[in-house]
Amino acid sequence: MSFTTLPAWAVAAGAVTFAALLYLLQHLKTRQRVVRLPAAQLWVQAARDMPPKALWDRFRDWLAYLFILVIALVLWVAGAQPEIQVGRANQRQIFYLDASAAMMGDDAFDRAKRALIADVRATPAEQREVYLGDGGGTRLLSPGENVALLIRRLSGVAAAARPSEFEAWALAHVAKPPTALRYYGAWAAAKDLAARRPDGVLLSYGYLAPPTPGNRGVVNLGVTPAASGDWTRADVQVEAVAADGRTIGAGDLRFSRNGTVLAPTVLPLGRGRFRLDGLEADGRLLTVTLKAGDGFPADDTASIRLPDHRPIRVSLSPGVPSTIRDIVRLDTAFQITPVEKAEVVMGREGESLRVDKPAFVLTPRQEGATFAFTVTHPEEEARVHLPSGLARLGLGEADAEGLADRLVRPVSVDVAVGPRRFVSVWSSIFDQDADFAKSANLPLFVSQSLRWLADRDPWIAYAQAGARLSDQSGLYGLGEDRRIAARALNGEVRVGAAGVEDFDGLPLAVSLTDRRQTLAAAEPPPPDAVRRIERRGLPDLMFRLLVLAAAGLLLVEWRAFLRGAIT
User: What SS3 class is residue 267?
Assistant: First the structure.
């Protein structure tokens, strides 16, 4: 016999405690004493010598004690919900509870939990294992563990807006000998594995969430540079679809920025696709919501954080050549400010520059020097990864070779470590009579360098739950964002469930935006897919029988008291 709500040792300890307490109460029970006096003047002496009540006396009645003890123990065991398991299965039983977006509709996840607990109770403890589909495949119950632990570990667990990983998990964790794998989730997440029928997997379903007919959802949300070319603006691509093929118009969507309703310029692109033109790139959160929700809420809303492309404040010292000064002045990405307010300072070596700010410094060409460009980053940041040659700096291979011929020395880039971000370049490259100063690559080089020095938040084109994170900060600087690079695993960063995720101070808005998930949410499961596990334990029946037994004993005790058999 095992117990559902408590381990066996706790049930035994409780029984012993009840026996001891009831035994003590038989001694400590307050009793009335009848005292007959021959004369009233003796009341005072009698009250002093023999009080009418006593808290401790002889053991009152063994039969009454046994009645009370048995009733208390029966109720205690009933509260522990005993189960008697008959027979033993030799097959390994694995239960998988999906906690992905597919289970967020209505009370689907709660229903799945109840079905799971009922089936686990009916399975021999030595053969059962329970796992949670939470993105990591957390084990909830090991073989031999009590069901009470499963109930406790599932307390507070809820489904999250992430793609299901059931198929990948099953193929990686279920192996020979043949394993009975029981799934509790949505048909959309299990049907591909069912179609493959891998060796060693005997798949069945304990619960399948009901479909959402005509489900609609936002399946695409991304940010692109503004078509106008304005650095301080961004365009947003939006797409929404309906499982029944209905067209979703712009009037079906609501837009907000940091919680405030927004009325942007919406350009329809056809088939549920739209473009929001010229939004201010100020780092705020943009949210797209379907005005009419449905039974599958995971895809009814999507959010993305706009890039922070407010003008970069740059201070120019008097020694900065006019070629560079004109580039900074004409580029909408920069704003020339006094050095006290600047994010980046630019000047010639030897000029009075703020040493506590990132700097772009023009240095004289020295004999024997091998590097025309030096990029310095702090030690705690990831090393700057420059592409082959100088392409990202706006210098193609041919341009670099041409510069090397005219300067009679190699043109190359060095990467160093220092107290702050720093870019130093030979000043002769920017002289007005130099070919590079007249080249179309000069503005690109200056803007890329200044953007990297400013260290603004990265440009995240989209952030889809369960997908690879797209960091496009390299398009506007000298390398990937250091916070995202620090989270990379095998060169990739994958984000989890939808919501706001913090990357070392960088708030990242993640959305589900999964077309396959939105369409599959409306697909019904086969009518005969779910079959209940045959009960081997009888926890509910045992509970009822014990409660009835306690009530019967209480009735017998009461009749015995009325007849004077117990006192």
Answer: strand
